[in-house]
Structure formats: structure tokens, C-alpha cells
Specification:
The protein is an alpha+beta fold. It has ten helices and six strands, in the order αββααβααααααβαββ.
Amino acid sequence: MLLEDFWRKNRAGLMRTVVSTGLALTIAIGVLAAGNTAYAALLHRVERGDTLWRLSRMYGTTVSRIQAANHLSGHLILVDQMLVIPEASADAGEFDPRSVELLARMIVAEAEGEPYLGMVAVGAVILNRVESPRFPDTIWSVLFQRGQFEPIANGRFWRVQVGEIGRRAARAALAGVDPTGGALFFFAPRKTSNRFMWSRPVIMDIGNHRFTN
């Protein structure tokens, strides 16, 4: 899909049934092209309280890139407006490919089907553990610490198909985006009765996951 096609449909209101309020998803083929520029893009439907600055922080990109991707000359956005959210301007090559793949694989294994922010949040928890003295100090060691991640125990970690959305979430987390504000744990309240998890101080819920300290 070309960006010009998206903007035309957006202005005509044809895109409004695609995304529910506050939800981001990849456009069908994952890429929007404008001239010679390709965007690994998400769509965001503007909800009350959104600002370009808030969205840039939420998705790990910049205000200027959101403006450029949407032909915005100022900061005004409207409720229900569909915005293209391009990836941060940092070159993906600056991240260690092995770290991106490891992180993306666990993000998909734990959060496939969750909102994009929930996927980034899972990546952030892993990186928060790397920085915490309570856990090992490498991504590999955190992921493979005994008894910590179910996808390691049941083998799902090795079976998942990692696509661009998982890698983008991993890169966002590696770039410092942390929707949880420092969580060290997460769990699915509907699927666990683990007393330790339920005893942790709650930070927030994103999708089907609860993030805690």
C-alpha cells in the first residue's frame, strides 16, 4: 500500500473500521512506501488525550517522523484520526542482531497476538532484568534462567515464527522504550494462580498481561 493511498482512504473515512481506538497494528504487508522511503509502519487510531509527543514516546519514534509520515505541518491531531507510526530514525543496524533476534523470539513466544505496546513491554521487562542486580546481566542469561519463562520450558521459544513486528518491538525496547516504567515481572491473570506473581505490586495491565515489580 502506498502512503498516498492510505492518506486518501483515511481522509475519506474508509480506514476507520480497520482499527479500534487505541490499538496499533501492522498494515497488511507491513510496509508503507512514500517515494523512495519505506516505513515499517503501524497504524494508531487517535484517542482522547493523545498528543504527538505522547505517541512518539509510546512507540519509540520521534514527533518529526510522525509528522513527516502523515503530512502534518503542525501538532494538531483529532480523535479517531488514523496515524501512520514509523519506526524510530535510529538505524536498525546499530543494535546487535543476536540481541534483537533473542529478544524478538521471546516477545513473540510470550506476547504473540497482544497489542504492540504489550509486546514492547515484554521486551522491556527482559531488559530491566538485565539491568537489575536481582537477575543475570545478559539477555541470554535472563531468558534461560531456570524456571523464569514458560516458552523456554515448553519449547515454544524455538518454534515461533519471528516476523518484522516482533523485531520492531525488540528494537524499540533496546532503544529504551518501556511502557511499564521499570517492571521486572509479567503474567496473564486469567491463566495463572501463582501466589508469588499475584503478590507483586501491580504497575499496569496491557492486553492480557499484568506487569509488576
